[in-house]
Design brief:
Strand content: under 5%
Shape: globular
Helix content: over 70%
Number of strands: 0
Order of helices and strands: HHHHHHH
Number of domains: 1
Distance between the termini: 48 Å
Number of helices: 7
Largest sheet: none
Length: 215
C-alpha cells in the first residue's frame, strides 16, 4: 500500500509539473513510463492490467466502434450543451482551431488521437491508475467503484487547458470509458478503440469547421 501511495504522489507531481508548463508536449509518456516501472517492479506486465488479446476481435472492434460513436454523440448532443448552458462557457479548444481546413494538421492530430490519447491515455488511466487505486483498497468491489469514480477526476484535470467545461465533460467521458473497461472484463482493447473513434470524430468535425462552438 505504501508503494501505491508513493506512486500516486508521483502522479500528482507529474500533474503539477504539467500545470506549470514544465513538461514538453504531453504528460502521458511520463505516466506511461511510471506505469511500466510500477508493473515491472511488481513482476507484472501490461497484459495483467488488460492490454491483451480479447476473446473475440470481431466483437471487441464492433463494440469499440459503436461505443466510440455513442460517446461522441452523447458529448456533442447532451453533456457538452448542458454544461455550456449551466456554466456559460464553451470548452476552450482554441489550440485546435488550426485544424480547420488544414489536412496536414488534421492528419497529425488523428495520429496523436490514436497514439497519445487512445492508446496512451487508456493504458495510463484505465490500465495503470484504475488498477493501482483498486490495489489501495484490496481490489474489492468497493475498491473498483472507488477507482471508477476517482480516476476520471484525474482524467478530467488532464484536460485543464479546456477550462472548467472541458474538465467536467472529459471527466464524464473518462467515467464512461472506465465503465467500458470494467464491463469488458478489464480488457483495454474496447476503450482504446472507443477513445480513438470519439477523438477522430472530433478532429474531423474541426477540420470541416462543424465542431460546435469552434468556428
Amino acid at each position: 500500500m505504501i508503494i501505491a501511495i508513493l506512486e500516486l504522489a508521483i502522479v500528482a507531481l507529474i500533474f503539477f509539473a504539467d500545470a506549470h508548463h514544465l513538461i514538453y508536449l504531453s504528460k502521458t509518456p511520463y505516466l506511461l513510463l511510471l506505469g511500466w516501472i510500477s508493473l515491472r517492479l511488481r513482476g507484472l506486465r501490461w497484459r495483467d492490467v488488460g492490454f491483451a488479446r480479447p476473446a473475440s476481435w470481431t466483437r471487441a472492434v464492433a463494440i469499440g466502434l459503436i461505443a466510440g460513436a455513442a460517446l461522441e454523440s452523447l458529448e456533442l448532443l447532451v453533456t457538452q450543451p448542458f454544461l455550456v448552458t449551466v456554466l456559460g462557457k464553451q470548452p476552450d479548444l482554441d489550440m485546435f482551431r488550426a485544424l480547420h481546413g488544414n489536412l496536414k494538421w488534421t492528419a497529425l492530430a488523428l495520429l496523436g488521437a490514436w497514439s497519445l490519447a487512445a492508446f496512451g491515455e487508456e493504458m495510463v488511466y484505465r490500465g495503470y491508475l484504475m488498477n493501482r487505486v483498486a490495489d489501495l483498497f484490496h481490489r474489492t468491489r468497493a475498491a473498483w467503484i472507488t477507482s471508477l469514480l476517482s480516476v476520471p477526476a484525474g482524467f478530467g484535470l488532464a484536460h485543464a487547458y479546456q477550462g472548467i467545461t472541458g474538465v467536467i465533460d472529459e471527466g464524464l467521458m473518462g467515467l464512461l470509458l472506465g465503465i467500458l473497461y470494467l464491463a469488458n472484463g478489464r480488457n483495454l482493447v474496447v476503450p482504446i478503440i472507443a477513445h480513438g473513434v470519439s477523438d477522430s470524430i472530433d478532429f474531423i468535425l474541426m477540420y470541416l469547421g462543424r465542431y460546435p462552438g469552434l468556428s
